[in-house]
Amino acid sequence: EAVVNRIAAGEVIQRPASALKELLENSLDAGATSISVVVKEGGLKLIQISDNGHGISYEDLPILCERHTTSKINSYEDLQTITTLGFRGEALASMTFVAHLTVITMTEGQIHGYRVSYKDGAMEGEPRPCAAIKGTQIMVENLFYNVIARKKAFKNPSEEYSRILDVISRYAIQKIGVSFSCKKHGDSRTDIHTDSTSSRTDAIRAVYGPGVARELVSVTASDDDPSHSIFKMDGYISSANYSAKKTTMVLFINDRLVECSSLKKAIEVVYAAILPKASKPFLYISIAMPPEHVDINIHPTKRETLLSRSLGVPDEAEESMPVQTQGGRN
Ligand code: ADP
Ligand code: MG
Description:
alpha+beta; Heat Shock Protein 90; Ribosomal Protein S5, domain 2; eight-stranded mixed β-sheet; five-stranded mixed β-sheet; 16 strands; globular; binds adenosine-5'-diphosphate; binds magnesium ion
């Protein structure tokens, strides 16, 4: 059974950045306003995430890493209205089948925290009292130690590290009000650092550099025709003066990080047509639409989201447009 679990886990956790994304989303779901990440060897040796969220109660520790155990969903109807990023209760469980996982956590009003490790979906021993501050720290060590072929596929830790930075960067500009930091283990310098008091443009500047931030144009759109669905979009796009080597498109739909390569291509084409020199844009777009138009439940990694095209796309009213969630394989 461990082997079957390991195979299933490999589907959910495809690479270090997908583990990081799940951990980050858990911290955000726990209401954290400060999240810091430390990475060793592109996340293959260590991903450590510390948050100041609500913590995990002692009673929940034994089942924390059991598959399909989640504190976030109670009924099927909840799926339509779910406001948390996680809802499957699969991520932590999966990690324990392909890595060593240790949790240190403390809830509000406790005088000490608990530390406990997990393997293959279960606790290793009892939670032990330890010094802590309110919040949760999770360490994922030796990812894919028991999936040799997968481990070998990641030849370039710096490539994996940049994928991790990419996921954090995107959340850092979406979740203003939350401070993010990320660095390599042993480095004093952070590679990402945002403040909880930053405005969105401050966050974009901190993450993507002053060049892009200087040239940003705010974009908003909405469609509140009552006969139609309610659709709102806002974001920033780089102006004509900005020119980068590659397009950066940060897309959130209903607060979920997604990817849409067809939209990205279309925008590149428009840019190339309008601007004299080949210019690649930076875009940050956040779309809010009724949840019934978005199916977040088609794949365990939530990498793909199904968008109903009845949002004003004329001739393919009932067809759906697949959008991919960022963080997995691209
Ligand atoms: P899901 O997010 O789909 O519920 P996960 O496997 O990602 O499932 O997490 C399992 C449970 O562990 C969550 O439902 C939550 O109760 C708890 N949890 C995980 N990470 C944290 C965290 N950083 N702070 C507080 N609770 C957490
Ligand atoms: Mg989760």
